[in-house]
Amino acid sequence: MAKKNAIIRKLPAVETLGSATFICSDKTGTLTQNVMTVTDIASIKGMEPENKEFGNQLLEYAALCNDCYPSSNSSEIIGEPTEKALLVAAVRNGYDKKTLDKKLPRIREIPFDSARKLMTTVHQVADGRFLIITKGAYDVLLLHCNKVYNNGEIENFSQSHKAKFDRSNLLMAEKALRVIAVAYKYVDRNPNQMTDSSLEQDLTLLGLLGMIDPPREEVKGAVSMCKSAGITPVMITGDHILTACAIAKALGIITEAEAESVKPQQSKLYGNKNRGENFKACAITGEQLSHMSDKELEENIYQYKVFARVSPAHKVRIVKALQKRGEVVAMTGDGVNDAPALKAADIGCAMGKGGTDVAKNAADMILADDNFATIVAAVKEGRGIYDNIRKSIHFLLSSNIGEIITIFIAILFGLPAPLLAVQLLWVNLVTDSLPAIALGVEPAPDDIMKKPPISPKKGMFCDGLVFKIIFEGAMIGSLALVAYTLGGRTMAFTVLSLSQLFHAFNMRSEHSIFKIGVFRNKQMVLSFLVCSFLQIAVVSYEPLTKIFRVTPMLPFQWVIVSILSVIPIIIVELQKAVSSRA
After folding, report:
1. How many Å apart are CA 147 and CA 44, to the nearest integer?
2. pLDDT given for residue 266 in this prediction
């Protein structure tokens, strides 16, 4: 699994992966490429070109309120992807980060916080004043603004101004753009004597920046595979709900009709004081979640496939609501605040690239490439491993029951022991070793992700496995007794061993071995050849015949042994054919 970028920290998680029914995934970097590019700029007047006066001012402020920096050779910009995209756009329009910082040195900052969704920096201006720049989520920053920049003039923020910005924000969100708003103000008072909250009040809204983060190409196929496997993919993001729904629609997490159903309700609720109103749609915001009780969330959890503007605390509530409905939940996270959700989830998946050590230590699995498709590949592998464990148990028990029946029936009818102790030990050595190991490395069936998740309530012997084990054990025992009746102990010994080796091929799949390919599992073929050679050597090579108290067989006896040994393939193939038609 590590070769597929899924590093398992806790071994039981492999079995749990096969039972996963919900995968709750972050959007940025997991469902998308995490390669941001600024594509749209908006002022109070609407969309603006980035290379004109307004665009230059907006990008200059975005570059100042920014923690990215150019590398030593200035060939690359280092930092968080969103801020990197803003600085790249500024550099594209002729700005230099070092020159800007020298011109307007930063003297204080309030770092970005996922709960506040804002970042603020304070800069010293040459005339003695101080420039405060705040950037962040539009709907959050809006609450901190009472003025607006309009073509060089500062105006009081009115409802008509808000409606114009709302329209630009919604247009960008519907295009799956992440929207960052920028606001500012000048103060004469020393900002070091001001509180954080006062720094971020009475701001002037400057404009909006829209950036695209394209979906990962492989994720759409992974989402489709999830659905066919009975797993529900859910998106959790800090982005605007319409941006999230646009990406979710592109990936197939929600349908176009579901995405369209969100738009009018969001337009209606936008700016509404009663933002906790519970509306029927496929998506919900963190603020609306906050107005719902745990019981309400549990009752309505199945209708939501997109959770937008959520905080890490909301993730824990989402996990617990799903678990109370009996779901097995995989949850992704990367930050320190995500640790409780990763702990609460049945399978916590931490990000290997951008994840913190706290998140990794709390997780059951680490995604080395931060990719949603890796989770799906891990689920497939987990199902395959569980399936192979079940196959090995099935094979070992049916084979050993065959040996027990052989001895028991002979004793019951007063016959001499069909097998000596040394012969039984040899049969166990040959059949319980290499073939069982080969079943453990059987490639996952092609249709394993077309089956429903493994229910954690089901035992290892569910779905008629006990009946199959007893039936196949009786079959192997009967074949050995027939051989004993026809040709004595040596034939019984050989048939008991070889029939189990042939039977190991039956265990590889619920489908016909001729359909899945006899030679697909090379380890099984090799183990069959090695063990068959050893068994033939034991009854043919004179020094070994004395040890195992057998006699060399005549050609016609070998024909009978061969026919009896291959019968398990014929009977189980007929059984599979009948089951597939039922």
Report:
1. 11
2. 53
Furthest C-alpha separation in the chain: 112
How many degrees, rounded to 5, is the angle at CA 339 between CA 336 and CA 343? 170
Q: How far is CA 467 from the centre of its chain?
A: 35
Quick: pLDDT tens for 184-231.
999 998 998 899 999 999 999 999 999 999 999 999 999 999 999 999
Beta strand 203-212 pairing with 37-43 = antiparallel
**188 is known as an active-site residue:** no
Q: Which of 26, 139, 213, 364 is catalytic?
A: 26
Residue carrying structure tokens 């690239």: 353
pLDDT in tens, 395-432: 999 999 999 999 999 889 888 889 999 999 999 998 88
**Cα separation values, 6 from 3, 371, 443, Å:** 7, 10, 17
Helices (H), 53-199: 53-64, 81-92, 97-103, 138-141, 159-174, 196-199
Which candidate, 209, 148, 153, 232, places its Cα nearest to that of 184?
Answer: 148
CA distance 418 to 430: 18
Total residue length of the chain = 582
**Which token pair is 217?**
């190409």
Q: Cα dihedral sign for 567, 569, 570, 575? A: positive
